[in-house]
């Protein structure tokens, strides 16, 4: 049983965007990103156009030069610029940066020369070196700390999400421009030029938006020094490093420093004879603490190489990590190779900028689609296997793209490359998120992102060079001719590498299981979890769980459902958590006794899991093995809702512990009785136990947690409004349960004997 961690709810994004200053910055960032992608496309295209008629190698070099000049400076030099940018006004840096970049891009088509194209690309990237850290440092000053993660996520979304939009826009521009050029020859302005003009304008608009931003003044910003603690007045200032500091008098009454470490409090408590050495030491401590705080809050520009060096151990910590990192970087290499050679490839295939835009859009749109469906497709298939498999699919699609020199096929196949990459990326991120401990997770992701950027840069810049060195060849076998293109060769080489990566990563990542890849895949394609198929051989019973908040009516429905099923001729085992075994009863008493208010959330989660392990072993499994229908009032999802959402423990960790406790036993059906917590608690009345007496916020989170679980697994869940009359709720449950039930009389027996159903109870 595997569930994904939520990837940032739309509600969270909305609340961050409700913050006006951040929204404005985000809009400006989106415009700049759109302009950036548009300019990358336009400049790669211009590099090809401006070198038309030159030797193919020159053309390849020109494209590679654009990619290298566009991507390298931000990676290599950004730490340097970051140091400078922390010393100047950030808003001014962003505004001037946007205006300069806009002007540079507009100048490229006006000058219309390859060298200026390369020079302007480089200069614009140098400007971006200042703009990006200024923007990164501004965000924490605009949003509250708890929204920072979501704000960064939104930033990433626009950085990469604008790529397909820019590509679509570029393709549309190319089509419109060639249409106009066909109709009125004098109107045929090259689309790359138009794209660069549009790009310039997006930067000017972004500058105007940023100009109106209320960026806090330096002192108030996260990076600014906190005000120095006021110095104690009655004590002479002593430098702790000063050699002439007075020697303490051992007989003097010493001023006691309170636990708070507040030097003023210290002087107030012992005003008569303050110890100058203690005071000096205290001042030094306060100074050091202030310095440490300043250091902690100081904006540090990202140093890609240092990040990779210092955090490399996260990538090699375990075979699983190695496999994940290798696979994800392989995927980036594939993406980079496609981006690098795409413009020359479409040129060789006889298509112009429209084809280039389509190809670019196909990769990124495919990637976005892959990320969207990554956690949703083949729900019953192991995510880890799917990770490696999707890299393999990307590799195969890339291989075919290289082998088949046809634009339509290339568009379809590169979108498949993108889908595979997107699936692998999102699964990889989720698994790393689950596997790496909380405090190391940030470093692991930092390593991944830094390494991915380098891999992308290298493969996008080196790809065209290799293609140029290999060159284009026509292979003629009698009347059959085949164009073997340098670009195709690069794609084939990259594809073979990606396939090797997929294989190695599969070996490292996939769980050890007796179920073969193909058996599991075939079962998942039919929509049947292979584990359930296996279990069904051993466990002929049916497992139904009722979930919901306090007083939702679970016991009522469990009782009525049991009566109905018994009437239908089944052996029914109604049960509940916690407390259905001898040990469980003791655990229930411990868990619900108000004496234990303040129990640590982890201990609480483990006690519920212990009860569950006993419950499964002693009651549920034996009943399922007999073929009975087990109806349990609460199961694992209660822990996910109460201890996960309610106590805010990590859901993935709870899942892992419970999967182990229950040996992966998952219900066939979970009925969620949904009810506002206050109504449920009002139904119970009387005294409350330890969990019932939690705050309204806690119960609100529990309800939300249940609903999210149900949304994520609609196949297993039936969600009902618990405010409906009991009889109606029962009818809904019966309707859903009926198809799950085994025939009380085996079909063959019925055919032979024609007997009445056997009552198993
Ligand atoms: N659909 C309903 N409408 C109104 N009241 C109901 C409904 N279903 C159950 N009740 C009443 O609500 C109260 C709580 O019901 P029940 O004990 O079944 O809830 P529960 O979910 O098992 O509670 P707990 O959280 O304590 O396990 C009972 O008095 C029951 O009669
Ligand atoms: C299984 C389980 C239960 N709880 C909480 C939920 C309830 O407040 C009590 C159980 O009592 P009830 O009779 O079902 O109302 O325990 C929990 O917090 N976590 C769990 O895993």
Description:
This protein is globular. The strands form 2 sheets. Strands 4-5-3-6-7 form a 5-stranded parallel β-sheet, with helices on both faces. The chain contains 28 helices and 7 strands. The longest helix is centred in the first third of the chain and has 36 residues, at 148-183. With 761 residues, the chain is mainly alpha-helical. It is 67% helix and 5% strand. The structure holds adenosine-5'-triphosphate and the ligand Cc1cn([C@H]2C[C@H](O)[C@@H](COP(=O)(O)O)O2)c(=O)[nH]c1=O. The ligand Cc1cn([C@H]2C[C@H](O)[C@@H](COP(=O)(O)O)O2)c(=O)[nH]c1=O binds next to helix 23. Residues 550, 577-578, 608, 634, 638-639, 642-643, 691-692 line the site of ligand LXEULUCI. It is a multi-pass membrane protein. This is Thymidylate kinase. It is found in: Cell membrane.
């Amino acid at each position: 049983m595997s569930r994904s961690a939520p990837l940032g709810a739309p509600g969270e994004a909305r609340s961050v965007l409700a913050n006006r200053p951040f929204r404005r910055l985000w809009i400006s960032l989106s415009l700049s990103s759109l302009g950036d992608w548009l300019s990358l496309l336009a400049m790669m295209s211009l590099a090809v156009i401006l070198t038309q008629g030159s030797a193919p190698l020159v053309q390849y070099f020109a494209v590679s030069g654009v990619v290298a000049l566009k991507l390298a400076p931000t990676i290599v030099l950004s730490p340097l610029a970051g140091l400078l940018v922390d010393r100047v006004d950030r808003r001014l840096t962003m505004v001037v940066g946007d205006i300069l970049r806009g002007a540079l891009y507009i100048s490229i088509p006006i000058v219309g020369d390859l060298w200026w194209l390369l020079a302007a690309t480089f200069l614009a990237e140098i400007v971006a070196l200042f703009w990006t850290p200024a923007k990164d440092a501004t965000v924490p000053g605009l949003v509250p700390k708890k929204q920072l993660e979501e704000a960064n996520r939104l930033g990433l979304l626009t950085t990469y999400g604008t790529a397909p939009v820019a590509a679509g826009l570029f393709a549309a521009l190319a089509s419109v421009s060639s249409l106009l050029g066909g109709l009125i020859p004098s109107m045929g302005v090259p689309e790359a030029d138009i794209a660069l003009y549009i790009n310039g304008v997006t930067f000017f608009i972004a500058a105007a938006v940023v100009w109106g931003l209320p960026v806090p003044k330096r002192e108030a910003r996260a990076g600014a020094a906190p005000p120095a603690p006021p110095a104690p007045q009655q004590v002479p200032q002593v430098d702790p490093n000063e050699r002439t500091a007075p020697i303490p008098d051992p007989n003097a009454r010493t001023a006691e420093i309170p636990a708070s470490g507040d030097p003023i409090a210290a002087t107030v408590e012992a005003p008569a004879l303050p110890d100058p050495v203690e005071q000096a030491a205290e001042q030094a401590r306060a100074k050091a603490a202030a310095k440490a705080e300043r250091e902690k809050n100081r904006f540090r520009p990202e140093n890609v190489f240092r990040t990779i060096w210092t955090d490399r151990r996260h990538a090699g910590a375990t075979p699983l990590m190695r496999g994940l990192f290798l696979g994800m970087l392989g995927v980036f290499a594939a993406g980079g190779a496609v981006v690098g050679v795409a413009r020359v490839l479409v040129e060789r295939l006889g298509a112009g900028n429209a084809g280039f835009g389509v190809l670019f859009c196909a990769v990124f749109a495919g990637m976005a689609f892959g990320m969207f469906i990554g956690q949703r497709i083949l729900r019953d298939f192991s995510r880890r296997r799917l990770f490696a498999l999707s890299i393999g699919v990307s590799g195969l699609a890339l291989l075919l793209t290289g082998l088949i020199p046809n634009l339509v096929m290339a568009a379809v196949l590169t979108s498949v490359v993108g889908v595979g990459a997107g699936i692998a990326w999102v699964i990889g991120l989720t698994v790393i998120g689950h596997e790496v401990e909380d405090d190391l997770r940030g470093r692991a992701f930092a390593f991944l992102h830094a390494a991915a950027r380098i891999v992308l840069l290298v493969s996008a810049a080196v790809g065209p060079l290799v293609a140029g060195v290999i060159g284009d060849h026509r292979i003629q076998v009698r009347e059959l001719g085949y164009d073997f293109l340098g670009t195709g060769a690069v794609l084939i080489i990259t594809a073979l590498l990606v396939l090797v990566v997929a294989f190695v990563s599969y070996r490292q990542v996939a769980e050890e299981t007796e179920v073969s890849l193909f058996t599991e895949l075939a079962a998942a394609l039919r929509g049947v979890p292979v584990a359930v198929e296996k279990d069904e051989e051993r466990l002929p019973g049916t497992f139904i769980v009722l979930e919901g908040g306090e007083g939702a009516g679970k016991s009522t429905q469990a009782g009525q459902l049991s009566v109905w099923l018994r009437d239908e001729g089944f052996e029914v085992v109604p049960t509940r958590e916690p407390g259905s075994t001898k040990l469980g009863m003791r655990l229930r008493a411990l868990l619900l006794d108000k004496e234990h208010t303040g129990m640590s959330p982890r201990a609480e989660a483990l006690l519920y899991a212990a009860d569950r392990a006993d419950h499964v072993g002693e009651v549920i499994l034996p009943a399922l093995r007999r073929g009975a229908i087990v109806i349990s009032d609460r199961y694992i999802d209660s822990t996910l809702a109460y201890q996960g959402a309610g106590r805010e423990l990590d859901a993935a960790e709870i899942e892992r512990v419970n999967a182990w406790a229950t040996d992966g036993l998952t219900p066939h059906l979970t009925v969620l009785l949904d009810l506002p917590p206050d109504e449920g608690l009002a139904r119970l009345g009387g005294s409350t136990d330890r969990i019932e007496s939690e705050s309204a916020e806690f119960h609100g989170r529990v309800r939300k947690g249940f609903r999210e679980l149900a949304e994520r697994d609609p196949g297993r869940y039936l969600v009902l409004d618990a405010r409906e009359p009991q009889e109606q709720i029962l009818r809904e449950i019966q309707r859903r349960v009926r198809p799950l039930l085994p025939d009380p009389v085996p079909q063959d027996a019925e055919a032979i004997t024609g007997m009445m159903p056997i009552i198993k109870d």
